[in-house]
Amino acid sequence: MGTATGIIKALNSGIKHLAVKRFTLRYPEQKLKFVGDGYQFDPASGVAIAGLKGRHMLFHDHCTGCQLCSIACEGVAEAIAMVKVPDKWGQNAKSIMPQIDYGKCVFCGLCVDACPFYALYMSNDYELSSFTKEGLIYTPAQLQVKPQVQQDSELIIDKRGARHG
Amino acid sequence: MMIELTSTPIIIMVILGIAGMIIPVINVVRKEQGSSTFYGLIAFGALLLSLGYVIYRFYTDSVADAAIFSSDVLVDDGFGSFFAIAMLIVSIMAVAGSFNYMRNKSNPAIYFSLILLSSIGMVLIAFSTDLVMLFVAWELMSIPTYILAGYNKKDPSSNEAAIKYFLFGALSSGIIIYGISLAYGITGSTNIGDVIYGFSNLSPDMLPIGLLAVGMFIAGFGFKMGLVPFHMWLPDTYEGAPTPITALLAAGTKKAGFAAALRVVIMGAAALNLDWTLALGVIAIMTMTIGNIAAIMQKNLTRMLAYSSIGHAGYILIGISLAPFSGLGLQASLFHILNHAVMKGAAFIAIAGIVTTLGIVHLDKIKGLGRKMPITAFGLVISLLALAGVPPLNGFWSKLMLFGSAIDATSVVWWAPWLAIAGVLNSALSLAYYGWIIRKMYFEGETEKRVKEPASIVGVMIFSVIFMVTIGVYPEPIIQFVEMITPSMTAVMP
Amino acid sequence: MSNELIEFVLVSVALLGIGIYGLAVKRNAIRMLFAVEIIVNAANLNLVAFARFMPHSGGQTLALFSIAIAAAEVAVGLALIIVAYRMYKNIDIADFRSLKG
Amino acid sequence: MSVIAPKFRLGYFLKGIFDNAFWILTIVTLAGIPAIQIVLFYLELPVIDGELLTAFLAFTWLFNPTMQVPLIKALIYSDLFRIVAFPGFGFAALIAAGTIFVERKMLAKLQLRVGPFYCGKVEGILQLAGDGLKLISKEIIIPAKADKPLFWAAPVLFVGTAAAFVALIPVAPGGWVVADLDVGLLAVFAVIGFFPIITILSAWSANSKFPFIGGIRALHQMVSFEIPLILSLLGVVILTGTLNLSEIVESQSSFPWIIFMPIGAIVFFTTMLAELERIPFDLPEAESEIVAGWLTEFSGMMYGLVQLGSYLKLYAFAALFVIIFLGGWTGPVFWPPLETEIITEGIPIPNYAGDPILTVNAPGLPLLDQDPNEWVLQQQGELQYTSGQLLVSGVIWFVLKTVGVIFFILLPRGVFPRIRLDMLLHIGWYKLIGLSFVNIFIALGLVYAGVIGPGGIL
Amino acid sequence: MAEQVIPTKKMPPGLQVENVDDRIMTLNVGPQHPGSGHMRIIVKIDGDYIVDADPDPGYVHRGEEKMAESRNYITNIPHLERPVIHDSCNILYPYVLGVEDLVGIEVPERAKYVRVIAAELNRCIYIQYWLAIYGIFLGHSTMFMWPAGDRELLIDLMEKITGARVTHAYFIPGGVRNDVPANFEDVCLRQVNYFEKRIKEYADIFYDNPILKARTEDTGVLSREDAIRLGTTGSVLRASGVDYDLRIKEPYDVYDELDVHTNVLKSGDSYARSKIPWLDMLESCNIIRQALEKMPKSGSIRTKLKPNPKGREDEVYRRVESGRGSAGCHIISRGKPEPYRLKLSVSSFRNLIALPYLLKGEKLGNMPAVYWSLNYWPVEADR
Amino acid sequence: MADALFLAISVLTIGSAIAALEMRSLVYGSIALMGTLGGVAGFYVMLDSPFVAMFQLAVYVGSIAVLILFTVMLVKRELIFKKIEDPKRKFAGIGLMLIVILALGAVIMDSGIKTISTDSDPVDFREIGGDFLTYYWPALILMALILAGSVMGALVLARREDTIENEQ
């Protein structure tokens, strides 16, 4: 009768789960809340700060055009190209700044680690899709814009199971 | 009226049916590990039990003599009991011959179970008084033998034999059921008694249909009996099938065909009041002549005996064709049926023993067999001599009765003596090839070492030799028995 | 009944003839089996037709038996054909030549 | 950031629509209208009330209340309605569609996900329509070396056989069944016997390995489970002594047979799962072993037809279970009788001018067939329920029970893994056949002990 | 694979491939087949029995090892986790340990604990993914959806730590890239506890399911000797009764300070092979809880490296216990910033060797059960 | 005179019987055989014997046709198209068929069958059940034995010897 017990137990487990809260994150309506403001670099300790490795943010007033981010990316994805910017910045004599092709970027964050001037951070924005390949290339001017994100859904664990709310 | 539950056919059906079903069950329970002897012994015991019951019923006079008519599907009469005894003896011999044969073969259980099922069919054909019952029993006899004939799956010839047998058998059953449908259509019943009564009171415009029905019965049963236009499958099948099964086919199912023919065709034809005897006589002469002439040319023992068995069908037909004119004819046929069953069974079982022990069936290779396997060879010799009709053996008496009936009927029909002449000539012809075998076995070959003979074959040989010699020396009781159970043709003759 | 018995019986005779033709001409084992089935069906049709016109239940009973027996027969026959196919790689009985005859 | 893909042009889209409309109009004009004319020319139109019944007149009748209600009534009691709509195909297809939706949502709930969500605003209720549209619009691809006639015929035959199966199922008292046969149960077995053939033919005709293996598996499964299927129902046949499905239902007016033969019910349920190729017996479509089994080469609407057929089959099997073991439509009649005024006086229906010209006994509910005579008998206490009451509550009970059974057919899909072929055959040949014989012996015992049957206690 | 190493399996009589016959059918299971992943198994079947199986990996090869020779030690990190993105921490672990040996730096204590937590979380993530596919291979769709959903809990945790959901690129020679977020301990403990409760529920519906047991028990049995001789590793080895776990036998980082148990089953069939990973997940939850308790509450997380570190001229081989078994990394350094040669020794390929051995004589229906119970990840075998 | 339905069914039956024997492909031959069997079932329905008709469909289509198709598909495909047929034999066969049909037809047309017609009610199929249990019960037992024997035998013949050991 072990078989019958096992079958009944399995059926019971299945029926029980009809009452458990659904776990699915209903994505376009709900968006997960992330730790902090994205993957950043802590100037004080010299190590990174936890956060989502999303789309980059470039602080034009810190970037010196040293190309270290581009060099770091060279062996990984070759997504960063240094391009001329029209503005003039004092610390950036050559007026070159990173332009990132998100068609190639693997979001490893090594460029953030490599930047000695805390000019390149990563933000919480991950919705980068575009209809064209060209739309994935972000110029320094686009990277400068801070993304507006609405992420407020959190994982709730209670007696009736875990869910996103 | 329901047939009583203690009557012979029902009890045989129950005993053999239970045994036949319990063997596969044991096989499944024992995970197909049982030995062939074990299953064989169950089958053997069941068959012996049924044989004992038939004889017990017969000796307590519980059975009627010969009742062709009954309001039920089965009747418990002497005619059926006679055939039941013959069939059960043949089945016992086949089972005994199979002990050794099946020793190293796969699936022994199903084999013995199928033999039992087939014997139920054979026995019940002789007892049935309803065409439905007859047809179902006919199929129960046939279908297991299709399988048994092809039981040697690794052997191409066995398979070829089975396919040919199957196709002709299926055709024959199709023709039989067509005939049944016609007979049913014009008489309105499936009970043989009612059918015969209907035949004898047929309106003239329905007569052709009745003729057609009887013709189809003759054709359908003739396939099984191996009558000449329908005999093409027989030598191939007998040669290819496993040899104990050949014994079953030659001695058992063929005789069941005669039983069915006696129940249906002869009575029906008699009732139709047709001049059918001449046709049967012609078929008889053709059958025995072709069978015996073809047998001479064979080099294969089984094939030779197969043709010889065709020839013997012709002998039996002599008596049947003369039945309306001479009371002796039908009795002689029945006597020869019993004799032929035992003789042919013994001969094939002996060959089965030779095949399983030495692996030879060719005529040139059996030199010195008399010294190699003395008991088997002796049994084979005795059965061959009996088949040929040599005097102190049983075959002599039945042939004598057959030819005597032909002489007896001379005053009624002009062609009867020709039957006797053809029979005698054929017997002489058959002695030639039987003698050839005997000569090969005893008078040729160097000094051979004796090999161990299988005990079951030896048992069968001893039994059949005793049977043949006893009846050959003292045939009176059997003849009386036959006289008693012979159905009366006058009951149906208009 | 709007139809007459003779019509059914004639259809049955036609089927019987076709079946005999198939058995005589065809040498493919499966086709021969088809022919046998056609013959059996012709007989069954006869039986049921006669039974309807009597009317009597025996013909239907025998037809039922016959159908069931045909099923058993076909099962056995096809098993034999499969075994033959494994051995000869063929199902043409004209090519089965291990036995002379 | 996003821009519309440059390939899309509104002009092309509109042009496509206009093209299609143009061709349809052309074909209708050139071929359709002459055909209609010819047909009308040779058709003998009936004369009713001195008027020639033209198409126009027939159309106007539909808006005339005096004609409309009898017309609808006549329609409802016609054979065509039975075949197409209520007890037949339409009803079954509706339940099948509901089954698909319920299956997806229920399975999603069991698996802690959402299931169809966006299509149709309310919890994805139009998902099935969307899927159907997608399947219709997809290209039908046929393998190059397939046996084309058989390959085409298989899905159609499958749906046809399933519909034939549905046609045998009675859903309400009073002969609400497409084909009311005296040998209904035997006809069910005959129809079930067609499925393996269609399966094996389609599998063979695709001329591909995976469908062939799947077809052979389906054949094994269906053929070997047909035997316990038949045997498990024999118990009920012994107890009721009839093969007519309606009579089997009526024999259960006091208690359903599942009380006496739970073993038979379990065996039948299991074989049902196997015949339907539902998990845990979905070996013929085992996607991890043999891609999609015998459905592998089907594409587009051919696949859709096979799915439709299999869900019709599911409904039919569930209904058969309800009919045989759960008492079909029997249950307390809860439908209240209509108001006294409606029955006795009827509701006057005015004509265009507003004068009452016709009194309809049960307006809007012609289905109920409220016969005043029956009502009178009911008032006198000679008739317990009118046929309309029986019909409505019977259908409701039937649907409720069927849905319950369908739920239990669907549930194992979320709970059990797939079984293996040798295990399946072992279950079928050894366990289920044995259990169904036990069931038959129980039934025989009940009959011979005199509990049920002629002269029995119950 | 060398012939003499493979033990010959006793086949049922009549199923030898030599007796090639038209009844043998060749099936190409894959690469476009739901049951194969990115590989092909050429299966020869005789009726329902498999007489020969020839796994054919090679559809996702991209020369990971050769690519590593032209990239420096840091930029290799995102590449080397690509073979098993679902187990990226563990596949990176031996490389990071090896580079630390070569460069000669010490890892801070807190970083070691963080590494262990991340590695164990990642092991669970991998096993959940594996289990999901095992479920769907056996036709159990719920067992596909539940692990895929519950895996989300741990992915959420990993994302809190590393900022990425799948490809973390978190470990780095000298420690980890970044510290854990502020209240990580509480969140982690809460979610891991819930996760443990959830996976225990799998037992009712999956592991104790009689149909599953009947289906997978006594199929594809790998005896203890054969498992050793075929060179299998990880869960396959432990399911055959060999108690061999690198976390205990060769403890790295702080595993020797934690109380680690290994799970060993004796039977060696598909069921045991599928149960060991599940038991491993429960054990991982224990390890995570212990590590969270023992972890220093503060401290350095990363020893700063020079920008372009050069290894000393040496070769080093380090291995760890990954989600599938032993994962090793052999680095030969010639004193350059790039490795001279890098070789990954991965468990998937080693377990794949057992596949043709196990499949012979099995039924076709057992093929997915046996194949995926080998804890195989096609891309890792191919790299 | 025969009505249209009867003619249609007889054309279907006889035509598909010929097709079953003459179609080049055995699979189509099997389907044509199914047509014959279905046509005969149609005749049974016309003859007011629904029980036999449904039994015919259930048994012939449900099991026999499946078995035949299964066998046909097991057999290699090229063989299905291979035809060894002697034209002489074929003409002889056609002659035989014509002789049989004409002779039997003539006999039957000449006999009293052609005058038989009936207006009585058909036999209720429940009577068949009664017959089975009272009159034909030994035949029913034999039938069970036939089925058991043929199933056992067919299984023994059709299963392969070499894999039996594996299953134990």
SSE layout:
The complex is a heterohexamer of chains A (165), B (494), C (101), D (458), E (383) and F (168).
Chain C: H1 5-25, H2 29-53, H3 58-88
Chain E: E1 24-29, E2 40-46, E3 49-56, H1 64-68, H2 76-80, H3 88-103, H4 109-137, H5 142-162, E4 171-172, E5 175-176, H6 184-207, H7 210-216, H8 224-229, H9 234-239, H10 246-249, H11 270-294, E6 314-321, E7 326-333, E8 339-345, H12 347-352, H13 354-359, H14 367-373, H15 378-382
Helix pairs in contact in E: 3-4, 4-5, 4-11, 4-14, 5-6, 6-11
Chain F: H1 4-22, H2 26-46, H3 50-74, H4 77-81, H5 87-110, H6 125-134, H7 137-158, H8 164-167
Helix pairs in contact in F: 1-2, 2-3
Instruction: Kindly estimate the percentage of residues of chain F that lie in beta strands according to DSSP.
Output: under 5%
The mean pLDDT of chain F is 79
| Stretches with pLDDT under 50, minimum 5 residues of chain F | 163-168
Shape of chain F: globular
Summarize this, please?
By secondary structure, chain E is of the alpha+beta class. Chain E has 15 helices and 8 strands. Chains C and F meet through helix 1, helix 2 and helix 3 of C and helix 1, helix 2, helix 3, helix 5 and helix 6 of F.
Describe this structure in words.
The complex is a heterohexamer of chains A (165), B (494), C (101), D (458), E (383) and F (168). Chain A has 165 residues and is α+β, with helices and mostly antiparallel strands. Chain A is 19% helix and 19% strand. Chain A has a single domain, classed as Alpha-Beta Plaits. The model of chain A has no long low-confidence stretch (mean pLDDT 83). Chain B has 19 helices and no strands. Chain B has helices at residues 8-29, 36-59, 78-101, 108-127, 131-149, 156-187, 192-200, 207-225, 233-240, 243-272, 277-296, 301-321, 327-358, 369-372, 374-388, 394-408, 416-443, 455-473, 476-485. In chain B, helix 10 (243-272) packs antiparallel against helix 13 (327-358). The two termini of chain B are 27 Å apart. Chain C is an all-alpha fold and 101 residues long. The radius of gyration of chain C is 17 Å and the shape is elongated. In chain C, 76% of the residues are buried. Helix content of chain C is 76%, strand content 0%. Chain C has one domain: Helix Hairpins, CATH 1.10.287. Chain C starts with a helix and ends in a 13-residue tail after the last helix. In chain D, strands 1-2 form a two-stranded antiparallel sheet. A two-stranded antiparallel sheet of chain D has the order 3-4. By secondary structure, chain D is mainly α. Chain D is globular and about 75 Å long. Chain D starts with 9 loop residues before the first helix and ends in a 10-residue tail after the last helix. In chain D, 62% of the residues lie in helices and 3% in strands. Chains in contact: A-D, A-E, B-C, B-F, C-F, D-E, D-F, E-F. Chains C and F meet through helix 1, helix 2 and helix 3 of C and helix 1, helix 2, helix 3, helix 5 and helix 6 of F.
